[in-house]
Amino acid sequence: MEAVSLLDRPRLAPLRRLRGAIAHNLDHLWAPSHMDDYLDNELSHEQRRRMEHHVDECPQCSQALTALRTLLGGLTGLRRRAPQTLVENVIERLRAEAAREERRP
Ligand SMILES: [Zn+2]
After folding, report:
1. Is position 5 within any domain?
2. For labelling alongside 32, which of 1, 15, 47, 65 has CA 20 to 30 A away?
């Protein structure tokens, strides 16, 4: 006879639902702090699957992930449009400011 898990018994369906709810809540706590790593492809295969499974069933986290993706996309766009001379300009201003400071009596 095949071994049957205690939770596979029909009358324990409420316990299975409870186990599912606990797993969902744990993923709900875990997902937001891993969304940036998810978008940067820095999660393991298993973690990616965990994120995608949770986001598929959680409207809140799905919305948060979409918002974060949009935000990071916007920041990437800003970085691309920044003038290449920006750093040089900042350094030049800092030097000028330091020179003015030195000239003060
Ligand atoms: Zn969630």
Report:
1. no
2. 15
